[in-house]
Write a structure and sequence with these properties.
By secondary structure, the protein is an alpha/beta fold. It has helices spanning 16-30, 66-75, 92-99, 139-153, 180-190; strands at 3-8, 34-39, 78-84, 106-107, 117-118, 123-129, 156-163. It has one domain: 3-Layer(aba) Sandwich (Rossmann fold), CATH 3.40.50.360. It has a 5-stranded parallel sheet with strand order 2-1-3-6-7, with helices on both faces. A two-stranded antiparallel ribbon has the order 4-5. Helix 4 links the parallel strand 6 and strand 7. Helix 1 runs parallel beside helix 5. It is globular. It starts with a strand and ends with a helix.
């Protein structure tokens, strides 16, 4: 059994992203894993200030919801990042959440690529929705995910569900008219099988 943390960084409460996350969670639960969903719409996480207080043995100086999430991050085997596409990338809420990982890094005396820090080793996955479904719709978001989380922090990518063509941004959620909910369910059910 794996401990899975899903961090949802935007979207309407019953919108496309919420539905995609719920389908994924259903699959994960049926596979017997433990899962917790954190909504960054309800838990405020501010972006990193770059003050470097955490580099001198102090906790992050910001008093927001991230401090309560640190034990959950450290306990998780897998962190799933869920977001609608906003301006061709992940939501600012997810980006702020990722930036704050800086304060849980530890000094690395022999750092790869000349960086200072070492992060907890985790698996990661990406769930995203978009109204558009062009070949480039998710390009910038996927690039950020791969560079920041996989290449820099060092997480292990377990996969992505990129759900394009989910309806007009001004209308009701249309994800139920696609096969994306089934894909997310299957992804959750098999993420640690095979």
């Amino acid at each position: 059994m794996k401990n899975i943390l899903v961090v949802q960084g935007g979207g309407r409460p019953k919108g496309n992203t919420a539905q995609l996350v719920n389908a994924f969670i259903k699959g994960v639960q049926e596979a017997g894993h433990q899962i917790e969903l954190v909504s960054l719409l309800k838990t405020e996480v501010k972006g990193c200030l770059g003050c470097n207080a955490c580099r001198f043995g102090k906790p992050c100086i910001q008093k927001d919801g991230f401090n309560d999430l640190v034990p959950k991050i450290k306990a998780a085997d897998l962190i799933v990042f869920a977001s609608p596409v906003y301006f061709w990338t992940i939501s600012s809420r997810i980006k702020a959440f990722i930036e704050r990982f800086y304060c849980i890094a530890e000094e690395d005396p022999n750092p790869p690529l000349g960086r200072y820090e070492r992060y907890p080793i985790k698996d990661c996955a990406l769930l995203m929705t978009a109204a558009d479904d062009f070949f480039w719709t998710f390009g910038q978001a996927v690039s950020y995910y791969e560079f920041a989380l996989v290449n820099y922090i060092g997480f292990h990518d377990k996969g992505m569900v990129l759900a394009g063509g989910c309806g007009d941004t001004n209308g009701k959620a249309q994800i139920h008219k696609t096969n994306h909910l089934t894909r997310a369910y299957e992804f959750g059910k098999t993420i640690y099988n095979g």
